[in-house]
Amino acid sequence: MTADLAAPCSPTELLSWVADLGRYPEWLSIVTKATPADALPGDGGPAWLVDLRGRLGPLARSKRLRMVRTSLDDDRAVFERSEADGRSHSPWVLEATVAATEDGSRLVMHLYYGGALWGPVLERMLGDEIEKSRPRLLACLAR
């Protein structure tokens, strides 16, 4: 799933909001909690325990993921699921890229989920949430 946002701020300011999963609960309501997690050997960067909760009609789903920021550049942050329990898990990869525009900056976020459990329900919830999150992120940037 891919989404974008035009923002009236610098790419650096926008990246500061999307490169730190701890800030996501402020603007992305599907992320109910994101707390720093202990570093493990092989982590490419900081890690967070991320609680996701989504509702679609009578259906509600919750999930806790251990996500690691595996890449951070001047214009891009990448997070990947990296659980600490030794079991095999479906991959989650979130990539956020920012670029300068004439009016500020543009954010493109791409989420890849390799599992089948949530499937179309996840896509519908995320689509709805993306629409709601755009004005909340813009409000955070305006503060």
Structure, described:
With 143 residues, the protein is an alpha+beta fold. The protein has one domain (2-142): START domain (Alpha-D-Glucose-1,6-Bisphosphate, Chain A, domain 4, 2-Layer Sandwich). It contains two helices and seven strands, in the order βαββββββα. The chain has helices at 11-18, 119-142; strands at 2-7, 31-37, 47-56, 59-72, 76-81, 92-101, 104-113. Strands 1-7-6-5-4-3-2 form a seven-stranded antiparallel β-sheet, covered by helices on one side. Strand 6 and strand 7 form a beta hairpin.
Report the average pLDDT across residues: 91
Q: What sort of overall outline do the alpha carbons produce when their principal axes are compared?
A: globular
Low-pLDDT stretches: none
Q: Tell me which oligomeric state these chains represent.
A: single chain
**Order of strands across the widest beta sheet?**
1-7-6-5-4-3-2
Fill in the keyword field for this structure.
143 residues, alpha+beta, Alpha-D-Glucose-1,6-Bisphosphate, Chain A, domain 4, seven-stranded antiparallel beta sheet, 2 helices, 7 strands, 22% helix, globular
